[in-house]
Queue: 2 jobs
Job 1
Amino acid sequence: MKTNAIRIGEYGGPEVLEFSEIDLPELQKGEARIRHTAIGLNFIDTYHRSGLYPMPLPTGLGSEAAGIVEEVASDVTSIKVGDRVVYTGRPADSYSERRNFDADRLVPIPDEISDEHAAALLLKGLTAWYLLRRSYRVQSGDNILLYAAAGGVGLIASQWAKYLGANVIGVVSTKDKAELAKSHGCDHIIFSEENISEKVRKLTDDEGVAAVYDSIGKDTFFSSLDSLRPHGVMVTFGNASGPVDPFSPAELASRHSLYVTRPILFDFISDRGNLLLASKELFDLVIEGIIKINVNQKYALRDTAQAHIDLESRKTTGSTILVP
Ligand SMILES: NC(=O)c1ccc[n+]([C@@H]2O[C@H](COP(=O)([O-])OP(=O)(O)OC[C@H]3O[C@@H](n4cnc5c(N)ncnc54)[C@H](OP(=O)(O)O)[C@@H]3O)[C@@H](O)[C@H]2O)c1
């Protein structure tokens, strides 16, 4: 069977993304074939494309999509033909009209949630889940600092953190993003060009925040450490400005016994039990209306290069969908 998909033959900028027809292999044991209806765009896709997170070449791209199960291998029992499903994970190949994937990694989509919303929320929402519920468990009354608060992960995490009772300080780059972040749970906004730690101190009676969720990386690492209260937790989970440089543990001692963690989503959902548990917690909050999903950009799959350009130039807000 043939399908259309994005392929890269070399690492580089958005220009290396090629839309082409490929052969879909026969289903292997444990796999299902999915016809995609909506594909989630994520910042990690740009790291795969640039080679920051290397993968053997040539390769597909994309870590999240929703669709319909078209066929399952004879040993698959967890899912059946016709089911609406969403998934996140590797191998990266969700920028495609159809693909084969491990059936155990597929999550059934509840009736109340559309395919588009499912593809817009699974990877980003599960990230918000582990950040706020596992990496540092937010307590009611905590001050927290969240970067890219109007972004894909950011809009979900700010709503979720507010629901957990946190005082949410969001960092964004523009006034429009500030408005959006404020209407999705941020109590305070700091603009990226401001002195972040100084502003955090002012907003927290000089105490500092219990946790920083920093997806910017290189440019913000030390401002983030400077924003923490004694024993505070630095969750560095992304590289939008480049990877964090090596640093000495003494930096943590001089700032009063800080903790640093560098988590990745897949370690929190590596077994099906945790994947389904976390997905249910996320879906329930969406169905209850506590977390609203913002699909603020849509592109045809063949225009993925433009989607990458817009994501990397900070033009997007909320979630972005590629339409196969
Ligand atoms: N470790 C994990 O498990 C995990 C899982 C999912 C996502 N992530 C990370 O979480 C972050 C958010 O992912 P997302 O897909 O939701 O993307 P996103 O937040 O929608 O987009 C990235 C945002 O980062 C901000 N940014 C600051 N400096 C930037 C720079 N130099 N270049 C580009 N953007 C910059 C921009 O917001 P402003 O203009 O408002 O600053 C931009 O909109 C990414 O860093 C991603 O790698 C990590």
Job 2
Amino acid sequence: MTAILGISAYYHDSAACLVVDGEIVAAAQEERFTRKRHDAAFPHNAMTYCLTSAGLAPEALDYVVFYDKPFLKFDRIFETYLAFAPRGFRSFARSLPVWLKDKLFQRSVITRALEPVFGDIGERLLFSEHHLSHASSAFFPSPFENSAVLTMDGVGEWVTTSVCIGHDNELEILREIHFPHSLGLLYSAFTYYTGFKVNSGEYKVMGLAPYGEPKYADLIRKNLIDVRSDGSFALDMQYFNYCTGLTMTNDRFSELFGGPPRAFEAELTQREMDLAASIQTVVEDVVIRLARSVRAETGLGNLCLAGGVALNCVANGRLLREQIFDQIWIQPAAGDSGGAIGAALAVHYMGLGSKRPSPHGDSMTGSFLGPSYDVNEVERRMSIAGAKFSRLAEDELIRRTAAAIAAGKSIGWHQGRMEFGPRALGARSILADPRSPDTQKRLNLQIKKRESFRPFAPSVLLEDAAEWFELDVESPYMLLVADVALGKRTPLHGEQLPMTGLDRLMVNRSVIPAVTHVDYSARIQTVQYELNPLFHALLTEFKRLTGCPVLVNTSFNVRGEPIVESPEDALSCFMRTEIDVLVVGDCFLEKADQPSHLLQEASFEPD
Ligand SMILES: [Fe+2]
């Protein structure tokens, strides 16, 4: 047996992953346990979960592998500051002590962090490289024997974009683009400029884009980014501040776009929507151009994607529609948490030379790699918490849950193993009826406590997906955007046509308005029986009741907090929001039955 623990930490989204004989047996993000969103601390809890769930003692591990090389990263920070000195001296002086304390001596920091569990880890501690970890997380779990692999993110050590070829148990790097030229950082610069939080507000920019017109796209292309025919690119650093300052953009950037950045939480205007549409268009164009050149360069028909930019499901959807590649597979934990998986698999295949099984399917197994709780344990915990519930047989549980959704209720759904990666896929989800015109507003404002424009995503039975959406491939990880099928759309009335901005939210565009974005698009999860039989049964029952095989599926959390992990997290979120019903294990809880002392104040952190 070969057991390898992958660790990602100290940047954002720390995580641990356990690979045994090439199989990904467990993976989880630290934030779910500590309840700190994007927690970057060493993933003690996630690591302990991985070991205990597999029943492995620490001494049974062959290797612990860190997802990047801290020394190379320090090199980048140091050289970047030197190159820009003395302009960046102030922020350099401010950030240096942090690096000296935590980053420069990261080997010893990691060794010390592992010590309570592993004692002297010694030679068993290995280091992967950031983009190799991403590429490995994209290729090795994919169902492909050969594939082109494209990784794009903010920045790792130096690399921001890489093109590789995956073949059997090998990855060969063809080319790289280096810091400061980065698609991820360009997108983050606009995230910052439109008044959202970098490293978490990028989704909001993507969600806002369809409300705007890409009016600034040419300005961006002319001034900020030089894209060559092969998709390689360079940014004009005169407009950015991330090399030297503590902000992403500078005064020159503000001058170019006609004003200062939007203040955090200030009102959204058409300008931010147009900026979002513009950067989304430009980034999509670069991704498409890169993909075309990768296809021409490698001649391969498959493409694997990872890195934070691969979470841009609108760009992924366009990649699919343009049919540059025959098949695309995207690592569901495409951000840095997934680096833990990639690092462990890189050691297993490339380090140890292990053969990949042949044939092999998608080895992320629906991304259901986190903790689960058996029904008696759930019952025990709910009883201790003082909740009022009924325990139902599976048929009854499905029947009552589907009926509640059809009656307009929102459901907290906590079942089976927690998802790995940013998306809730039917294990830790809030579910609702997509047919209702006010579901989107109600869920956003009353339950998730977030901005009204944020779109919701549909889960659809795989067998019905092509009838309801313009999508003819599986999308088990909710990473592809496609349009609602023409037959399910509702014609617009004359007076609705000139609507602009957020007014467009008020218009019913389809028979499933809660999951139909203003441009008719939807971020789709296809649900197949093999990966999640219970969720599949729920969708099937909802379809039997209503004729609609689609549910709204959003992550089980409120704004600013991580997705729930334990049954207690689920109960707490249920009692803090206007979720009507909680279904956890075989326990069925209705809000109206709960004792009043369990009710909690609603509060949330701005994100
Ligand atoms: Fe990354």
